[in-house]
Specification:
By secondary structure, this protein is α+β, with helices and mostly antiparallel strands. The protein has a single domain, classed as Jelly Rolls, CATH 2.60.120.10. Helix content is 25%, strand content 31%. Strands 1-2-16-10-18-8 form a 6-stranded mixed β-sheet. Strands 4, 5, 12, 13 and 14 form a 5-stranded mixed β-sheet that branches. Strand 1, helix 2 and strand 2 form a beta-alpha-beta unit. 38% of the residues are buried.
Length: 339
């Protein structure tokens, strides 16, 4: 059995973690750099090396997608083709859920194939009639879907982001399409990708924190669950009460952040108050670089037609050098101290 550290060693470790977070924020801006033209490959690589985000305002305003992707155009291209849609009762796909007994689980959505025309109309109608409680649908498969199930739209966006491809010397691992309304949210998490995110319709509201926030986010290993339907008719339109979540089989234990910077007193750690989250809103045509390993949660606002859509490019992060190993060390120390 592991033994507790002596009080003086525990105090020194606590001070070191506090210094890490405080020093980071003293040395780095608490706002995101705003650019008004795309960076060169060299300028982009400097941001990657420093692991710092930026926004290019109107950086994608001339993309065909930004110019054309209204509902009429999307319906004319996709029609009734089948697409994968995530369905949840509360817009909480891939999220931490508090159970009735106070324990936590990590819940994944019910996924169904549905005609695109039905999905976009449902999303738009739900946005304009939120007082009626209905299941929330979100096209968010995150599996390179823009080059697969939405491939007919792929020609409307660049095949890659040139400054990223040149700087990173690789093509994107995935290009994803996102479509939902303001009821869908993305809970706090981080990815092993250099992420270029482009807003096409509506707005996205990001809360982001650097990897040194590991001690603040209260990462826990919790059981995975998945929403399923209790309605035996797979063709029927679901009701909220039809969706129940059950433990995954075989059992799946997922390490996830459980602290939310928008609810700072819930499941906080002694280090949560030291972190200074950055907040940024992306408007139509804006482009953001979100560095690998940055914690982020996302909410969205719809455009005039009642939906929000975006495209993102994931480039594999570099696992060589000290960045990955250092972050893994900080994360392990944070979990050991907080637990």
């Amino acid at each position: 059995m592991a033994q507790s550290l002596p009080d003086d060693q525990a105090s020194k470790l606590d001070s070191a973690i506090r210094d890490l977070i405080i020093n980071y924020h003293e040395l780095n801006a608490t706002v995101i750099d705003e650019l008004y033209e795309e960076p060169s490959a060299l300028e982009f690589m400097q941001y990657v090396a420093r692991n710092r985000p930026f926004v290019v305002r109107k950086g994608a305003e001339d993309w065909t997608a930004v110019q054309k992707w209204d509902s009429h155009y999307l319906l004319s291209v996709l029609g009734d083709s089948l697409v994968n849609v995530a369905i949840t009762p509360f817009g909480n796909a891939d999220a931490v859920l508090k159970e009735d007994d106070g324990s936590l689980s990590y819940v994944k959505p019910l996924e169904r194939l549905e005609p695109f025309d039905k999905v976009i109309r449902y999303i738009s109608e739900q946005e304009s009639n939120q007082e009626k409680a209905t299941p929330i649908k979100y096209a968010q498969t995150q599996n390179d879907n823009l080059r697969n199930e939405y491939s007919s739209l792929f020609e409307d966006v660049p095949s890659d982001i040139p400054f990223a491809r040149i700087a990173l010397r690789k093509n994107p691992e995935a290009v994803n399409f996102w479509l939902g309304n303001s009821l869908s949210t993305t809970s706090l998490h981080k990815d092993n990708y250099e992420n270029i995110y482009v807003q096409v319709r509506g707005q996205k509201h990001f809360v982001i924190m650097p990897p040194v926030a590991a001690a603040a986010v209260n990462e826990q290993s919790i059981s995975g669950t998945t929403y399923t339907s209790t309605n035996g008719d797979e063709e029927a339109e679901l009701k909220v009460e039809d969706l129940k979540h059950t433990l995954d089989e075989p059992e799946l234990i997922v390490p996830v952040p459980t602290w939310d910077p928008d609810f700072p007193d819930v499941r906080s750690t002694p280090y949560s108050e030291l972190v200074k989250p950055l907040r940024v809103t992306l408007n139509e045509g804006d482009m953001m670089y979100l560095p690998a390993q940055w914690y982020h949660k996302v909410e969205q606002s719809c455009g005039d037609e009642g939906y929000c859509c975006a495209v993102n490019y994931w480039y594999d992060m570099e696992f060589g050098g000290s960045f990955w190993a250092s972050n893994a060390f900080a994360r392990d120390i944070a979990r050991a101290v907080n637990n």
